């Protein structure tokens, strides 16, 4: 008998279906994993079941009864709680208060009964074997401890269904093991656990069954016991198009431009980028790709990284210092730290190179126009004018402006984090052509991307990251999407190979 | 790393708010330098002088804990002062009406600010800068010169004494007790801290964020109304420039008292202690016959110093 059941659950955003007729069932005392590639509809499903968004069609049954949640609080009261990747805690309040936030127990005088709150919290924590001090400030806790507070809060609603969304993304391996022990105990207590993770090895470690979503549709639900890693990946990706048609390019790998040793926790990774080479960096959310990419560009703490550029040791302590060494980083988050928003296209392009167009500190607008306009023309940026506000441009043209700024810094090594995120197909192809042309021209390029297909098309080598370390390196032609997926999700059969 | 950070926090927590230590040092210095400082008369005088600021600081604490600021309180107190002075004009029988007026105007303006805050969703600093200016305009439209006078009861509240203590300060003590209870022992207080520390988390926990913020402004308005009455008692006349700049002193007192400027945690006891410390500082400097302009410089330096002492920088310390 299923505890949580959905029938024909559908959701469209602006007419675009993201979830189409999902039938799903999870039983009490079961760990049920939910997997799928980006855009498969996992988040939408979780948000509907936990009351954050309403379905366009379909129904939810909890313990046999049809339920409708107008908001997350209703879902919680009914016994469905979710622990998001982003925690929702009040940092300056203590653990007990956070657990009971919004429904603090009161005494006869109507005052908050702190003693009882502490007692109840202590009892709850003890019952589930969480080692936390109910009186500790949340701000002083580690990420793993904060997660336990979230889980305890979820359980305090007498949760029958607990949803964990990428719960291990921010945890160290020992903390992950402790979380699994917690999950095992909850399972024994009869809680149904929906477990969403990109890390398929974890799915095999803790899940009883797995439901595979693809393009908003349920592909299958299977016991994990009868599945292997490769089989699961095939179900997630569907028909793989065979070896990806990669650009015919004989990379005449030049001399080593950048050699780096990167340390994160226990792990050490070696990164080598040669002139004329495009290197891909693959991995899932939480693997630490962006942290590594930024570390190469002056955002690291001194003990994290040692680098040599053209054989000379360098230790840039800021992005500006890294740029002087020829290391230029292109952000994955244009809006937050790429664009100067109300300003025009030209200013956005030349902002880092004003010294080159200024005399005695006064900017020559003509020189700026020549320098920036020339670069933008080369990148085929389409804008109503060089003064057009940057935020009025399409994503692809915004990205080109950011690219132009990076290139005006005259990099030796270009580090692109998700260079085609949020750009249309045409601009994407142009950016790919540009990256290839830059490599031809002798630049060393590192491309971080969540799209494995993009890396397979562009990169001469692909580094796979997991748990903040490079765990495997593939050469062009010796890997396909399935293999990359298996490596990044921790399939021991693939990861056993030496990096 | 985490352990070091936690240890740092614990050390600060164990030492208590820095304001207490500053108080001890200041009083010591004052005792050594100024023989007259420790007379009962002078100490009562310090408390008398601090009462207005203490009242404003109590209300401001609620707003700051909620992650906002209320710049309108100095002018709101002034408006109340002028209106109440005109209403009473020295008549004893008008005292009750004046108290009612002060409470009504304070609560009304606070509620209006809270409603605007909910509707417009603009930064509270800017919003209350706007209401400050409006209140100043209204005050000067009403009168551009001193008018009226406090009733004997209001004058006694500000200047009298009960067993050697000023009645206004006893009022402060009573209100601090109530405010402390509200801030730390009611659902409202817990929700206030949650809203100030992490508004999104508070919303997700089902806390009515807008209503909590509105309540904070109402409390701030009410305390400004009471401060206006006490200030009137001290001045003896409805002077329309009386409370200019008090809002900044109130925010300084709140921060000196250990309330997080970004919200999420605070103490009314700390705020009032800080208001008294500011009173001690100016009293000492007066006794030393330091000019009031030099006093401003010294006050500013004390503020910066105390903030520095209280600041923990986790990423540097770790």
Question: In words, what does this structure look like?
Answer:
The complex is a heterodimer of chains A (499) and B (318). With 499 residues, chain A is an alpha/beta fold. Chain A has 18 helices and 22 strands. Chain A has helices spanning 42-49, 72-78, 95-99, 114-127, 143-156, 173-188, 200-206, 229-237, 289-299, 319-324, 334-337, 345-350, 365-378, 395-408, 425-440, 452-458, 481-488, 492-495; strands at 2-13, 16-27, 31-35, 57-62, 65-67, 80-83, 161-165, 192-196, 209-214, 217-223, 256-264, 267-274, 278-282, 305-309, 312-314, 327-330, 358-359, 362-363, 413-417, 444-448, 461-466, 469-475. In chain A, strand 11 and strand 12 form a beta hairpin. By secondary structure, chain B is mostly helical. In chain B, 76% of the residues lie in helices and 0% in strands. In chain B, helix 4 (73-88) runs parallel beside helix 6. Chain A binds chain B through residues 71-73, 87-93, 97, 101-104, 106, 110-112, 114, 137, 139-140, 142, and chain B through 2, 5-6, 9, 181, 185-187, 189-191, 193-194, 196-198, 200-202, 204-207, 260, 264-265.
Average pLDDT reading of chain B: 87
Radius of gyration of chain B: 20 Å
Q: What is the total number of structural domains of chain A?
A: 2
Structural class category of chain B: mainly alpha
Major beta sheet, strand line-up of chain A: 6-7-8-3-9-10
Distance between the termini of chain B: 5 Å
What is the number of beta strands of chain B? 0
Query: What is the percentage of strand-forming residues of chain B?
Result: under 5%
| Inertia-based shape of chain B | globular
Strand portion of chain A, in percent? 25-35%
Number of helices of chain A: 18
**Top CATH class of chain B:** Mainly Alpha
Distance between termini of chain A? 46 Å
Class based on secondary structure composition and strand pairing of chain A:
alpha/beta
Largest sheet of chain B: none
Weakly predicted, low-confidence segments of chain A: 241-246
- Give the CA-based shape of chain A: globular
Say what the CATH topology of chain B is.
ABC transporter involved in vitamin B12 uptake, BtuC
Write the CATH architecture name of chain B: Orthogonal Bundle
Radius of gyration of chain A: 25 Å
CATH class of the largest domain in chain A: Alpha Beta
